[in-house]
Every structure is written in structure tokens, then in C-alpha cells.
Amino acid sequence: MIVAVVNPGSSTIKLSLWKDNNRIGTSTVPFHDRPELLDRALSSFFSGNSDSPPEAVGVRVVHGGSLFRDPVLFHEKLFDDLERLRPLSPLHTDGAIRTINALKRIFANCPIVLSFDTSFHRTLPPVAFHYPVPNSWFHDHGVRRYGFHGLSYDYIAHRLKELFKPEEALRTVALHLGNGASACAIHSGVSIDTTMGLTPMEGLMMGTRSGSIDPGIPFYLGTKGLSPEEIEKDLNHQSGLLGVSGLDSDLVVLEKAYRSGHKESEMALSMFARRAAQAVSQMATSMGGISCLVFAGGIGEHSSLMRNWIARDLGFLGIALDSGKNQENGQSSTDRIISPIGSRVSVAVISTKEDWTISRDAHLVLGQ
């Protein structure tokens, strides 16, 4: 079965084509506001990479809330459910709805399967997904931890079975580090804790998002005249690596600036590494230990500096890197082990494939 995989972001859409569990094409196109331009960008990629039209389409949806615990076959009534979830992730949900409408126009008779980033975290126990807030917030408003990057963590859990013996990956902490960043405790292949919460803003410091901060800060800024919209914009788009460095959110730019003596970039990178290391300890606590650490995402895969800075604070957990292995193939997308032989904790770099998970979901839902 040929599956078209569509992963909409806020400004771009990642596209790939899968046949018999093999990726046969990939591209990234701009997210156009005008429907005709969006349709043309999507259809031109798929028509140019396959002689046959897709037999199914898989679409990533960031937030499934409590409504979607598994991938589902799209039908018109689901638009109402997606609209109900819009306040939890407005930009991502809007992008998903617009993308689905475009795919309906392009592939009128093709089944569309929705895969949710929150689904992998459906195994979180109550002690992990409850917040220490009034119970009415949970029962009346659905305030709880959902977690994200689930499509990435799902692939990592699959890949761990191929790279390690079961006992070696029994207690795995996975770090998905990119413009969005999170950590996940994967015990026996399932999620039991994670750093992102009700929305993708909680947890680690990110490219332009603050991650976890004192919840009193927005209230304080309100007394200074900032509106809720201004505060939300700053926390989502002007914070994180960009906010601290005052320069950029791109780690390549910041590492170059740091080596040139830019102090604010050094501070941003140091904060990013420290918070990631703290999250590893936090996730290990949830599992009663750690046997494997995984670096994934654009930063996790390609920045030997960040991997080194994160690992150097985790020696007390038995985590160490082989400096040569950490440096070699620094820009490679090949999965590899970068811990010394005989280490108590295995450390791996995994090139995560969210589109593999989406393609698999399409096969499962359609019974292929």
C-alpha cells in the first residue's frame, strides 16, 4: 500500500511517501494561506514521486486531548471534535484542519487516517498526568498532562527493540531535542512520564518557548500592563534559546556565536543543557533508575556539544559518553551507540522517524 504522510507545522508541511514500509520520497513545502497554493504544493510533490496515486493518507495532529487515544479514520464529524481541542493548541490544530481540507480536495476518494502526538502517552499513570490543582479543574475542564512528541517516542520505542536486548532498554529516558523539546520515561516500551503537559509549552527550554517557569510570572506581568495575548506570544515565540541569547533560536547559529565569545549564547546553551539533564534525572526517578538514554530530534541527533554538556552532569547516574563516538558522524542520521563499552547505561543517538509511525498507523487502521 502506498501511503502519503503529511506532517503540518505552523509554517511548513513535511511530506513523505511510503511503500511497503519504505520511504520513497520526502520534501518540505511552505504552508500557504491560500487554498489553491496549498493544494498545488501538496499535489505536485505526490504526483512527482509516484506513478500511482496514494492509497491512503496519514496526517499528524498534535493534540488529541481526551477524545483520541488511538489513530482514527477521518470522517466529517471529527471536525467538531478537532474544533473542541483548538484552545489547547490553536496554531497546530488550525494547521491540521486546513491540511485535512486540502487533502480532501486533492484525494477525494482516499481514506485519511489521523495520528495524534498525544496517543503514545495514553499509558501515563494518574500520578503522572494529574496536576496538584483543584479536582474540579480536572473533572470540569480537562486540565491534565497529555504529553507530546508521541509519534517520535513511538518510533524510538520500536527502534529500541532492534538495537538492544530487552533488559538493556527496560528503563529508557528519551530526549527529543529540537525547536520543540521534551523528555519521556519509556519503561518496558510504554510511556510512564513526560515533561510536556496540557500544552506543548511545559517542560524543557525550547527554541522559542520558555518551558516551565514560575506560574506566578504571567500574573505579575499582568500587573505591569501586559495583556494575556502579549504574555502568551512572548512565552511561545520570544523565549527559550531566542529569548536568552537575544540572537537566534537556531542551535547552529548559537554554537558558532558561543565559540566566538558571545556570552548570551553561552548562557542560552548552558541553560538548555542543564534543564535537559535535570529532566533525565526526573524521568529516571519515575522509573526507579535508568538503563538507556536516547538523544533524538534535530539537536539531539546533530549536536555533539549539547550531548556532551547534557551527559557531563549525569555521571552520578552512570551516564558517560565515548568522546570519539560522540564526535564521529556528528551530522549523520545513522543510529549509533555513543557510550563506552561496558557502561552501566547505554547511550544512543536515534534518527527518529515520525512519518514511519504515521504510515504504520494508516496500515493498522485500514487493516493492511
Brief account:
By secondary structure, the chain is α/β, with parallel strands linked by helices. Helix content is 42%, strand content 18%.
Task: Describe the structure in your own words.
The structure is a single chain. This protein has 368 residues and is an alpha/beta fold. It folds into 2 domains: 2-116, 2-Layer Sandwich (Nucleotidyltransferase, domain 5); 150-354, ATPase, nucleotide binding domain (Nucleotidyltransferase, domain 5), CATH 3.30.420.40. The protein contains 15 helices and 12 strands. It has helices at residues 35-49, 78-85, 90-106, 126-129, 135-141, 150-163, 216-223, 228-237, 240-245, 251-259, 263-287, 297-302, 304-312, 323-327, 354-365; strands at residues 2-8, 12-19, 22-30, 56-61, 72-73, 112-116, 171-177, 181-187, 190-194, 292-296, 336-337, 346-349. A 6-stranded mixed sheet has the order 3-2-1-4-6-5, sandwiched between helices. The chain has a 6-stranded mixed sheet with strand order 9-8-7-10-12-11, with helices on both faces. Strand 8 (181-187) and strand 9 form a beta hairpin. Helix 1 packs across helix 3 (90-106), helix 10 (251-259) packs across helix 11 and helix 11 (263-287) packs across helix 13 (304-312). The protein is globular.
